[in-house]
Amino acid sequence: xxxxxxxxxxxxxxxxxxxxxxxxxxxxxxxxxxxxxxxxxxxxxxxxxxxxxxxxxxxxxxxxxxxxxxxxxxxxx
Length: 77
Prior knowledge:
The chain is an all-alpha fold. The protein is 69% helix and 0% strand.
């Protein structure tokens, strides 16, 4: 089972929107300011980058785990 499998596309889009909204509020950017420019100025990753990196790190941790239960699950999946 994939980590984000139980989430709908709508819920992920809402989370993405909330991430952007929070960044604009926290760093005092106007509502209609360019998200790309804002993230570049702040040096922060986009929501999609965060999601991708989280998936990759999780997969790497599962592959490198020495836990016997996880090792058995890797064989099954």
